[in-house]
């Protein structure tokens, strides 16, 4: 008889020690380049130039490993990480887990890109500037905006930058006084609330009419006033609903003198089919690490260019890139600019990857991308909607979705006690990435938000539905299985007690040793080999 | 699939959703290319660049040329790390553990017990740090030395919310913070005193203990920005009273990428008040239901934007995790003796370069009379930096950053960075060419 919870899948389970528990004294994986004896003779003991009170007395107590030990350790950690290249990620909505073509990786690893210093003479970096300039122009065409900055490093940072631009523009126009509110909708990504708040605005959040899934226009109007500095929303929403009142919202906000910033993290499903600049938006942002296929890199570096209409171009972070004759240069002469929002000019390798992707796609390819993503999305919606316990709120008002869809497991939870948290611990036992629930607050109870992108095949989607079906069935038939799930992953169910207890949390190995060393080792006969290795007294550092 | 969806074609799905918003034109973009054509096109464009291997470069100022171990490139090319994103610890244990190791290794380098998720770069990390200080103290002013990187201070000013930056002076001859001025400026509204060490201009602040005491005596926090490789030689900020440390992780195994591979880090005391004030995610070790098994979780998850939207008044999200993993690989490769030896090597090379340049008539190097680590100021007297550097370029040498506009008070000066990548021959060549130019 098989063990409880067993499936055909088994994740890598290395029980890999923390890097500090590996290696041994005197080992090292790096040879420092040689110092010529004549040079050393000429400078003498440089350390003695540092006053004694500022010298490091003991070397940092880092682990000591050989190169093979380091590589093996991190390869094992990578094997315990589930990326787009590992398998089905169709459940991870709002993230656009699309495939990143390998040729783009090969190209950005070129020393001709990797070994450039950002302050080099402009004549020596014409190639990279040309690519950056071309991407800015391409993004203008795709968005219908007039100017772009490549500087922001992630979606939330881009929305923050747009809030700073709104602030700067209103200040320069002498209108900032009394205009201190930003309006957003609760089904927009949470950064549309958090980023303007971080930029110093009060945030007014509009909730949807629970009958339709989008805000009621009258309710929206009530929130907008002469204090409204800006509107910052996503459309399509993270529910996959495209709000057709967008133009009305824009008009209402413009009428009170506010600016409109549309967060286009959800661009993928409307690539080539919706140009936000054509509908009066003043600012927008794209996530190159979503719609434009640059890899998510375990959580960055991302790159989130912002686009603006001509009237706001002067406020963009400096420098922007301009073409003068046949030369490209960094334009710093921007007196109204909000200045830099991060160091240098943006995540250049991602800009180049995005160039490669747009170039490989061409205009037809972008349309094919959004077509495949939208067909996949709606196919998945139809198939998932048939599963007992799963419902799609607002399926009557908005049966067709873009990008993703926010489902609810409320029925399943009421029927079985299994909600999204437990389901997510179990679905991973089947060798797929977990589902993205939904951002807080949960307007949709027990939410999950699948987004297949164009990179899922029909077979992937059918498999995903089959797994969802199996897990929901388990909830009805053997819900005990959820208590201790997962069973087939790299580790077992995590105890969350340390997460909010200052006596228990340990954010570094040094804190861990301090807090836990005094606790007696946990005994028992089921100790793994790796754990018994851990129980040896911690090696003393010099 | 269309049959299941109940649509006659894909276009009808867009008509049903986008309606009047549907773009009916054709995007003016070049037609698609094959992989082969793409490679030819992009390589031809990149070929126009001249790399820091082709030009002898002495640039630093926030992004530095170092020897990058191939093991770092190998691990950050691993497709699992490259293509993962937001999975839970069950599918992404490796990502969580690598991040915990990043936090731990940085913690040991700076001697602090708490380290957060990475941020974008030093400037935004400094922004996070001052924001934490403002929130934790309930005060609004941050005191920054006038010697700090103007670009970095410009960036961090975006992150102050209702707070503001005020400046304190520095000694023009040595670069050292002017403590009398600091004592005069500090007041009951000061949330934090910030220093950079090594400073932007390369010198080592030597009165750090006192700066920390001045901050603490006023109830303010002490924030230190660091270049991490200096910490094999310099005392870690955790040992001279820092409450929060921030810095740039690019030297830890990342290539320059035209400034596109930066990695900010923030460390602090393991103090609830401080940790509650950061908007960054925090990874903690925890247990699992299996005896003896270790797991990881987000600590204090209720603080961040994802839980509190605008109430958090901070934002997070995609930052620089792949680079943080790379930094963990790098520090694991170097270990304690590697970091120490590398620090000393950098100092030897940079001091030799300062000596070689300082021996040239018409050059004052280092201009600031203080101990320094890898960067130092070079003054050309009456000769314009631009002129001197143009002449250097003609000889295949890229001089340091021209700081004439950032620091007009230091005349015709530039900031030179010399690291382990520079051989004695390189430095002698710089000296010979410079001597010829200034003759």
Helices, strands, pairings?
The complex is a heterodimer of chains A (542) and B (439).
Chain A: H1 37-43, H2 67-79, H3 102-108, H4 111-114, H5 126-143, E1 147-149, H6 155-172, E2 181-185, H7 191-198, E3 202-206, H8 217-223, E4 228-234, H9 246-255, E5 259-263, E6 283-285, E7 306-308, E8 320-324, E9 327-331, H10 348-385, E10 407-408, H11 410-416, H12 420-427, E11 447-448, H13 458-477, H14 509-516, H15 529-534
Parallel strand pairs in A: 2-3, 2-4, 4-5, 5-6
Antiparallel strand pairs in A: 1-7, 6-7, 8-9, 10-11
Helix pairs in contact in A: 3-10, 5-10, 6-7, 10-13
Chain B: H1 2-5, H2 10-17, H3 35-46, E1 56-57, H4 70-77, H5 79-83, H6 93-110, E2 114-115, H7 122-137, E3 141-145, H8 150-156, E4 164-168, H9 179-185, E5 190-196, H10 208-217, E6 221-226, E7 244-248, E8 264-268, H11 272-276, E9 283-287, E10 294-298, H12 305-308, H13 321-358, E11 375-379, H14 385-394, E12 397-398, E13 401-402, E14 413-417, H15 424-438
Parallel strand pairs in B: 1-12, 3-4, 3-5, 5-6, 6-7
Antiparallel strand pairs in B: 2-8, 7-8, 9-10, 11-14, 13-14
């Amino acid at each position: 008889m098989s063990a409880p919870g067993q499936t055909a899948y088994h994740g890598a389970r290395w029980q890999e020690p923390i890097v500090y528990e590996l290696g041994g004294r005197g080992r090292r994986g790096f040879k420092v380049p040689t110092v010529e004896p004549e040079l050393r003779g000429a400078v003498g003991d440089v350390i003695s130039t540092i006053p004694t009170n500022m010298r490091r007395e003991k070397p940092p107590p880092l682990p000591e490993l050989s190169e093979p030990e380091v590589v093996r350790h991190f390869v094992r950690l990578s094997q315990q990480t589930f990326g787009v290249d590992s398998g089905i990620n169709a459940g991870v909505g709002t993230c656009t887990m699309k495939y990143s073509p390998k040729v783009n990786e090969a190209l950005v690893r070129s020393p001709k890109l990797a070994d450039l210093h950002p302050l080099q003479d402009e004549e020596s970096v014409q190639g990279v500037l040309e690519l950056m300039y071309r991407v800015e122009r391409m993004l203008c065409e795709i968005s219908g905006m007039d100017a772009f900055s490549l500087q922001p490093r992630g979606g939330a940072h881009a929305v923050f930058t747009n809030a700073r631009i709104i602030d700067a523009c209103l200040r320069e126009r002498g209108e900032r006084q009394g205009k201190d509110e930003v309006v957003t909708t609760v089904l927009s990504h949470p950064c549309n609330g958090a980023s303007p708040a971080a930029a110093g605005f009060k945030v007014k959040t509009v909730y949807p009419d629970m009958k339709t899934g989008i805000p009621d226009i009258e309710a929206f109007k009530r929130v907008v006033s002469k204090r409204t500095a800006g509107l910052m929303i996503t459309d399509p929403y993270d529910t996959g609903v495209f709000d057709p009142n967008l133009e009305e919202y824009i008009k209402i906000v413009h009428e009170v003198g506010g600016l409109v910033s549309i967060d286009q993290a959800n661009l993928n499903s409307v690539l080539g089919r919706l140009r936000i600049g054509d509908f009066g938006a003043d600012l927008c942002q794209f996530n190159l690490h979503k719609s434009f296929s640059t890899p998510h890199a375990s959580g960055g570096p991302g790159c989130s260019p912002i686009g603006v209409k001509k009237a706001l171009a002067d406020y963009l972070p400096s420098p922007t890139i301009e073409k003068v004759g046949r030369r490209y240069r960094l334009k710093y002469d921007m007196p109204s600019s909000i200045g830099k929002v991060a160091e240098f000019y943006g995540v250049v390798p991602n800009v180049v990857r995005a160039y490669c992707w747009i170039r490989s796609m061409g205009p037809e390819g972008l349309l094919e991308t959004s077509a495949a993503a939208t067909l996949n999305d709606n196919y998945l919606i139809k198939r998932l909607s048939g599963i007992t316990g799963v419902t799609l709120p607002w399926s009557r008002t908005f049966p067709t979705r873009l990008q993703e869809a926010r489902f609810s497991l409320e029925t399943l939870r009421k029927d079985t006690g299994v909600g999204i948290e437990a389901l997510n611990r179990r679905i991973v036992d089947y060798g797929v990435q977990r589902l993205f629930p939904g951002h807080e607050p949960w307007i949709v109870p027990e939410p999950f938000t699948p987004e297949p992108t164009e990179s899922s095949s029909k077979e992937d989607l059918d498999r995903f539905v089959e797994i969802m079906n199996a897990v929901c069935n388990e909830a009805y038939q053997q819900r005990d299985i959820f208590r201790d799930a997962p069973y087939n992953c790299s580790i077992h169910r995590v105890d969350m007690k340390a997460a909010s207890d200052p006596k228990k949390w340990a954010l570094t190995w040094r804190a861990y040793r301090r807090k836990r060393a005094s606790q007696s080792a946990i005994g028992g006969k089921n100790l793994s080999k790796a754990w018994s290795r851990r129980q040896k007294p911690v090696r003393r550092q010099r | 699939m269309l049959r299941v969806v109940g649509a006659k074609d894909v276009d009808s799905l867009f008509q049903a959703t986008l309606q009047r918003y549907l773009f009916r034109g054709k995007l003016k973009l070049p037609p698609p290319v094959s992989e082969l054509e793409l490679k030819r096109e992009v390589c031809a464009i990149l070929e126009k660049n001249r790399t820091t291997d082709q030009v002898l470069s002495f640039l630093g100022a926030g992004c530095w040329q170092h020897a990058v171990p191939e093991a770092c490139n190998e691990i950050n090319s691993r497709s699992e790390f490259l293509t993962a994103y937001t999975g839970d610890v069950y599918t992404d244990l490796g990502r969580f553990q690598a991040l915990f190791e990043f936090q731990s290794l940085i913690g040991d380098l700076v001697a602090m017990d708490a380290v957060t998720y990475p941020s974008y770069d030093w400037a935004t990390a400094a922004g996070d740090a001052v924001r934490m200080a403002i929130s934790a103290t309930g005060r609004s002013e941050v005191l920054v030395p006038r010697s700090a990187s103007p670009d970095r201070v410009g960036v961090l000013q975006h992150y102050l919310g209702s707070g503001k930056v005020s400046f304190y002076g520095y000694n023009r001859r040595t670069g050292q913070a002017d403590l009398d001025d600091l004592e005069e400026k500090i007041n009951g509204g000061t949330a934090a005193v910030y220093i950079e060490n090594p400073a932007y201009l390369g010198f080592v602040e030597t009165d750090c203990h006192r700066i920390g005491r001045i901050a603490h005596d006023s109830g303010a926090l002490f924030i230190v920005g660091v270049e991490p490789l200096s910490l094999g030689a310099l005392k870690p900020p955790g040992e001279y009273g820092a409450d929060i440390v921030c810095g740039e992780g690019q030297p830890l195994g990342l290539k320059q990428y035209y400034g596109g591979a930066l990695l900010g880090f923030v460390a602090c005391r393991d103090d609830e008040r401080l940790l509650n004030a950061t908007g960054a995610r925090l990874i903690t070790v925890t247990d699992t239901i299996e005896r003896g098994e270790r797991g990881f979780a987000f600590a204090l998850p209720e603080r961040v934007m994802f839980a509190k939207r605008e109430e958090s008044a901070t934002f997070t999200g995609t930052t620089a995790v792949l680079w943080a993993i790379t930094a963990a690989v790098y520090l694991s490769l170097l270990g304690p003796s590697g970091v120490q030896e590398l620090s000393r090597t950098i100092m030897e090379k940079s001091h030799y370069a300062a000596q070689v340049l300082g021996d040239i008539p018409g050059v004052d190097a280092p201009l600031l009379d203080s101990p320094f680590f890898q960067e130092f100021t070079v003054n050309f007297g009456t000769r314009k930096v631009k002129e001197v550097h143009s002449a250097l370029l003609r000889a295949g040498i890229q001089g340091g950053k021209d700081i004439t506009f950032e620091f007009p008070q230091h005349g015709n000066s530039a900031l030179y960075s010399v690291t382990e990548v520079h051989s004695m021959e390189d430095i002698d060549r710089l000296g010979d060419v410079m001597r010829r130019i200034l003759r």
